[in-house]
């Protein structure tokens, strides 16, 4: 861990009142003496570990995750340091002012408000799951969703984050009962795990009770006994499917199930949503790979040709193969006169298209940045301003 030394860190930040505590440390409100701004400081006490280094590992993951993320719905990373005298570890981040959605429990939620929160949370998850590797929060619940005074939603507490997918499972169980997907009991986590937790969160807010108090039918939350019929209940039911292979797998699939009319307005700092329905599935602008422009020309030609051929292949997959495969499935006996099954099939198709589009855009970006007709980028030291 980078170490700025205890005097610099402890003198810069004046610790104030506590904000909360968890398995990975306590969080305090603090004042940055250099800027005068209020910040949040998370402290992990080494003496409290008792020989168990798992909390330290999770604390490190949280630091690494926040340092690599930049989204208006995620607290901004500021600093981290260590006290050599006490052995305590400190993470400094943006203080998110507002109220947690857990304070809205106790009365049934307004459907229009629930849809706004759902789509805003989907925007955050789309960003996290679109990272390479995907970032899985693993502890999404009402108390970790903060509603800012201006109405924007913010996801906090990345103490249980997983920075990569491990198909063999085997990690420590992280989560909160009621909101935790069944596969988390075995240490497994994928983007669909966060989708389940978000569905449980919205279902709890809709019913006005914590998720562990919602009626159940076996492993499934019984939404028919707690929510009124409608589109929201249908979508939540698909998000809360206990079997992750049958669950809506990602934010794009949930949005497709909800319909484009409830897609949230774009944030001022993000690109406006494209007009075409195909592009609307894409979660982010095409990436840029400027370092590729400095490759030797012969290598750029090779990569450029390969990237365009691969792009053409993924165009065929996107516009021919995927639609054909799902159209054939939809025409089968299993989906005829079965509206709920057909809806899930369409959601899976949207999710598949989103994944293919993401790969295709990356390949296009590689081709663009290795175009041999462009001049290679100058090294940093040779640029003129």
Automatic annotation (TrEMBL):
The keyword Transmembrane helix applies. SMART domains: S_TKc. One of its GO terms (molecular function) is protein serine/threonine kinase activity. Its EC number is 2.7.11.1. The keyword Transferase applies. The chain crosses the membrane at residues 303-328. Residues 371-385 have a biased composition (Basic and acidic residues). Residues 13-262 form the Protein kinase domain. Residues 260-286, 366-385 are annotated as: Disordered. Keywords: ATP-binding, Kinase, Membrane, Nucleotide-binding, Serine/threonine-protein kinase, Transferase, Transmembrane, Transmembrane helix. Pfam families: Pkinase. Residues 269-283 have a biased composition (Low complexity). Gene3D superfamilies: Transferase(Phosphotransferase) domain 1 (1.10.510.10). It comes from the Bacteria. It catalyses: L-seryl-[protein] + ATP = O-phospho-L-seryl-[protein] + ADP + H(+); L-threonyl-[protein] + ATP = O-phospho-L-threonyl-[protein] + ADP + H(+). This is non-specific serine/threonine protein kinase. The lineage of its organism: Bacteria, Pseudomonadati, Myxococcota, Polyangia, Nannocystales.
């Amino acid at each position: 861990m980078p170490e700025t030394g205890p005097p610099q860190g402890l003198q810069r930040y004046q610790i104030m009142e506590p904000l909360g505590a968890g398995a990975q440390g306590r969080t305090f409100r603090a004042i940055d003496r250099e800027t005068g701004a209020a910040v949040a400081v998370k402290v992990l006490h080494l003496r409290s570990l008792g020989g168990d280094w798992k909390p330290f590992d999770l604390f490190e993951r949280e630091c690494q995750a926040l340092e690599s993320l930049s989204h208006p719905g995620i607290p901004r990373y500021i600093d981290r340091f260590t006290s050599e005298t006490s052995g305590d570890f400190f993470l400094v981040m943006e203080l998110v002012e507002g109220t947690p959605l857990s304070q809205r429990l106790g009365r049934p939620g307004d459907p229009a408000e629930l849809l706004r929160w759902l789509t805003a949370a989907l925007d955050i998850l789309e960003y996290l799951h679109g990272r390479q590797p995907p970032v899985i929060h693993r502890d999404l619940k009402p108390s970790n969703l903060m509603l800012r005074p201006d109405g924007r939603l913010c996801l906090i507490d990345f103490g249980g984050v997983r920075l990569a997918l491990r198909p063999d499972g085997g990690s420590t169980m992280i989560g909160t009962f009621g909101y935790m997907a069944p596969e988390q009991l075995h240490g497994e986590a994928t983007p669909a795990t966060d989708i389940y937790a978000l569905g449980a969160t919205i279902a709890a807010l809709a019913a006005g009770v914590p998720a562990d108090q919602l009626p159940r039918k076996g492993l499934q939350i019984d939404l028919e006994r707690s929510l009124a019929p409608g589109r929201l209940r249908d979508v939540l039911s698909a998000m809360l499917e206990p079997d992750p292979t049958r669950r809506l797998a990602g934010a794009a699939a949930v949005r497709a199930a909800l319909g484009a009319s409830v897609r949230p307005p774009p944030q001022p700092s993000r690109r406006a949503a494209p007009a075409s329905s195909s592009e609307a599935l894409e979660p982010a602008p095409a990436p840029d790979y400027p370092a590729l422009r400095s490759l030797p020309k012969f290598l750029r030609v090779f990569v450029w040709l390969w990237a365009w051929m691969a792009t053409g292949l993924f165009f065929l997959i996107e516009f021919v193969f995927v639609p054909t495969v799902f159209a054939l499935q939809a025409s089968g006996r299993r989906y005829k006169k079965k509206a709920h099954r057909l809806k899930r099939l369409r959601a899976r198709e949207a999710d598949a298209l989103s994944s293919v589009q993401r790969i295709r855009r990356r390949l296009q970006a590689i081709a663009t940045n290795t175009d041999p007709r462009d001049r290679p980028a100058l090294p940093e030291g040779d640029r003129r301003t």
